[in-house]
Specification:
Length: 204
Amino acid sequence: METVIFSIGILALIAGLMTRHYMIGGIVSVAAFLGYFSLSETGSWLSLIMFAVGTILVIAEIFLPTYGILGVLGLLFGAGGMVGQNGSFAAGLIDIVIGALVGIVTFYILVKLGYKMPFNEKIVLHNALNKERGFQSQTVDMQAYMGQAAVTITPLRPTGKATFPNGQILEVVSDNEIIGADESVTVVTIRNNQLFVRRSTHGH
């Protein structure tokens, strides 16, 4: 039972990060991890704190790449917390392996559905998105696009491309659902210099 709860926490954490539903994923994963650490008689607050610190360090590595330094430290802290929780290295290793498999499968499925980790846009160079093909550098004033209508040219799962009335093709992010290509959308908010859109209620 504890292993299932821990796996749910891993699944919720990855799903929350990749689908940008940070609040929902965070609440579910925290609840699952708290449940996991409260079920075992061998667990302690120290084990929970070590695991929490490890999780925070791994997430920090995702958003602030440090060439793996924070990631490795996070894994060590997390593993230490798991071992302390289970009272033995073997039992902790089993939960870690099962949780890792669940995480890998979740990540694979979401990638196939078109989702990606939030750091991809910072470290991946998007080739062939040049001016000659109609793509514009996204260094323009994003605030100018607030409330504007656009038409998607790729599916938004949740990130994709849309063309605006001024002819620019920019990257946009679906705010609440998967949106297909050639659909009318409206910019509803701007966060971290990204345009978040929703499907328009009227046709285009």
